[in-house]
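Sequence and fold:
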Amino acid sequence: MDIAEASTAVLRSGKWENVAEVHVHSCIGQFVVDFFCDDARLVVELDGAVHLEPEQRERDALREQTLSGFGLTVLRFGNSEVQNDLDSVLARIEAHLLAHSYEQTEQPGDVVHGQ
């Protein structure tokens, strides 16, 4: 399974159903995130190998700090984790959704939803 197929599997897994509405490639402030759930204040990022490089790790840390400032939780999964252990990835997402979903009155920053 390549990462595009794995991303589709995450989105269509059914873990989001009846719990939250999820958006793909939403803009939050200056960032484009892979998946965003308003209700659970959750961002899910699927990271390729470039995210292991020191400079990218620093950028990712600043990004997470900014997103956390909007009251969001960021869950990061490496592409290999998604490809090799999708059930575990989905279980972590589901656990967060079930524990943190609620009705939201405002959206963080400027949010523009993709697909």
Observations:
- Residues 103-107 have pLDDT under 50 and may be disordered.
